[in-house]
Every structure is written in C-alpha cells, then in structure tokens.
Design brief:
Number of helices: 7
Oligomer: single chain
Low-confidence stretches: none
Helix content: 40-55%
Strand content: 5-15%
Structural class: alpha/beta
C-alpha cells in the first residue's frame, strides 16, 4: 500500500484477527463489529451500512443481533473477520485464526477466506503452523525459523487462484508442501 509500518498504523490501514475471536460477550455481533467504527468516529448510519456489508461478506447476515455465546466457534471467527474488515483496511493480519477449530470447520473457513480474498482483493498476512493450510491459502509462503524468528525461505505458490479443497491431493500442492517442510526443517537445524 506504499506506506511505512508507522504510517499504516497511524492511518489504521490494517485490521487484525486474533487466535481467539476476541468478541465482547456483553455486545451483540453487530455491536462487536461496530466497536472500531465507534472509536474511529463513523456516523451511526455509516456504522449500520458497514456492519450489514461485512456481515453479508462473511455469510453472517441475520446473526447481528445474536451474542457471541449463541454462535459456533467458526461463526465467532467469521464475526471477528467482519470486525477487522468493517473499516476497510487495506491489509488483514490473521494470527492463527482457525487453529482451535476442528478440521471440517477449518476447511470450510479456509474456503470462505479464499472467496473473501477473491471478492475484496485485500492483502492478507496469515500466520499458521499448518503446512497444508499455508499452501492452500497462500500466493507466497514465508517460512520462519524458531527463536529468534527469522525468515528462512520465501516460496511463491504456483497454484491457480481458484482452489477447490481437493487440490491438496495434486502433485503440485504436495511438491509445494514438501518444499515448505524442508524449509522448516532447515530453519530448525540452524538453532
């Protein structure tokens, strides 16, 4: 986006999705999504408009009046993503947002995230410890070494932009996953 990290912070050019949904239990889903908009001084009409847009984007229309405890873990994470998208940040940073979910829900959210990316064209930085998830979601995979965290390898994905889940069985996917695993092993041996 052409900004330094400090400029991006001051301009609120990024949204952040935590490992846990981080929704306030006393606020409805809509009010959780509105929170950054309230802090940023958006008008009530603009808040409503944006909340409705992002709820539709993450396929949660009709759930705005519910409280977090009334939604499944996957739905809560989608609400958290909606909150990060509400103020139209250029960059979406996601720190293992699907790590605590079962494989079926995780697969579903991975598919939805790819669709969301296709619709919004946002830059998404996604942290995961899952090699298949990294390969499935990424156009570029940055392999990090452990403590201290250092970039060990950068792998460009050659997978097509549209990716059905069964692409994970393709030779191309397996080859990229193998390269990521080798990069992780090499990064661990540098200790």
């Amino acid at each position: 986006n052409g900004m330094t990290p400090d400029e991006a912070r001051r301009n609120r050019a990024y949204g952040y999705v935590f490992q846990a949904a981080g929704l306030y239990p006393w606020r409805t889903i809509s009010k959780n999504i509105k929170l950054p908009l309230e802090i940023m001084g958006y008008s009530k009409a603009e808040q409503e408009k944006r909340v409705n847009q992002v709820l539709e984007l993450v396929e949660l229309s009709g759930f705005g009046g519910k409280f977090p405890w009334q939604l499944s873990g996957g739905m809560q994470q989608r609400a958290s993503i909606a909150r990060a998208l509400a103020f139209d940040a250029d960059i979406l940073l996601m720190d293992e947002p699907f790590g605590a979910l079962d494989e079926i829900v995780r697969d579903h959210l991975n598919e939805q995230l790819l669709k969301l990316w296709a619709r919004t064209n946002k830059t998404i930085g996604f942290v995961t410890h899952s090699i298949p998830e990294a390969v499935y979601l990424s156009t570029k995979i940055v392999v990090m070494s452990p403590r201290p965290g250092r970039i060990h390898d950068v792998i460009d994905s050659t997978l097509p932009k549209e990716r059905p889940l069964d692409i994970r069985d393709s030779p191309e996917f397996i080859e990229i996953a193998h390269r990521v695993r080798e990069g992780l092993r090499a990064g661990h041996s540098d200790d």
